[in-house]
């Protein structure tokens, strides 16, 4: 039987683990980017029942190498271009390790004052790095909080919005079916999930039209929908504007949307999960247009593109009162003089769960390691590699690029002359599958105006010019080699 791991044993195994991670980072390019295992393969390789007797820690590392590694998709691979990046970095990993080492549960200020106060400092720091308004800071009426994900952030925003719109009635009665929220076809699915969780149901969701070309929400249509709902006796509770949509990084016109929200007293949540962090660079501060004037809540994910390991979403509010009113519940066993005095922040009141990890450590570690200049350099590198790629694709007559692409995401597709739209879409997907199966890169797809396009999201800290060049070479080569291409070349038609 193993006794508890002693500090000396921990030191020894901890060194093995840190070495393992450093070797993994150094050798990451030797792995195929996307895992090649089939469903159930990993599970079948693992024992169905847990061990009766403790095992040496080395056995865990051995199985990690032989069983789990083949079942991993390497999100930190420099040729991972799928979805959006999910950045990891040395300082973030070490900050997270320290958080685990401390094992602090930071639900209340009193359960670890430094856990709360460091979080207050880093979210205020980040507000300042991103050029967010002073009223989002904790010493003003607002404040920020670290959430596990953007999905949680939008649920919290919705609960605060419902609280304000209903004068607290939703919290008392649990009935939210008179309330409506406004999203676009491009809004992240987490808003629909939040509406379900909050009791609005599918009937409470209004999908506002987007501009055909930019895919940005149409504020004129938004105004019409809100007016129609009010006339019909519904209560518009929240609009979600997106800065950098998940599909194409489209940016909704926040100032115009905010104007509509103000007219009708509707809560404005701005979801900038991916793109928001780019505002560390002055040249991307325009991403914040309208936020200072109109946003009630705003969130962005350092765990996507700002070098902080998942999970780390920061949610700010312009006025914390409705948020705290909506979410504070004080059972006797949590009562303490510090909380009662009102002089401390208890972040459990800013989120759904009670318990919380010491996530501020990893964000603090990242901001201190890189400094503002290092964070700017990281964003600029991703943008510049993506812009080079977009220029290469645009220069190739066999492909077309979706415009605009101001950040790290490029959406494009082969033209497939001679193929019907449906056949062309199938061919694009087949090209993607061939590329991903090859293991040298990983990209994903979306649809724009009903047509399949490929997405290449550049933004991993390990990605260099050569990886993007190699990816583009691979794409062109596989495009040429795809049997469909040879058939259509002979038909000599154009689309
Ligand atoms: C990725 C993304 C989300 C979801 O982020 P999670 O933190 O994974 O919940 C929400 N909104 C947008 C715009 C996104 O791009």
UniProtKB/TrEMBL annotation:
Coiled coil spans: none
InterPro entries: Aromatic_deC, PyrdxlP-dep_de-COase, PyrdxlP-dep_Trfase, PyrdxlP-dep_Trfase_major, PyrdxlP-dep_Trfase_small
Pfam family, one: Pyridoxal_deC
Gene3D superfamilies the UniProt entry points to: Aspartate Aminotransferase, domain 1, dopa decarboxylase, N-terminal domain, Type I PLP-dependent aspartate aminotransferase-like (Major domain)
GO molecular function (one): transaminase activity
Keywords (A to Z) from UniProt: Aminotransferase, Decarboxylase, Lyase, Pyridoxal phosphate, Transferase
Cofactor(s) listed: pyridoxal 5'-phosphate
Protein family per UniProt: Belongs to the group II decarboxylase family.
Name of the protein in question: Aminotransferase class I/II-fold pyridoxal phosphate-dependent enzyme
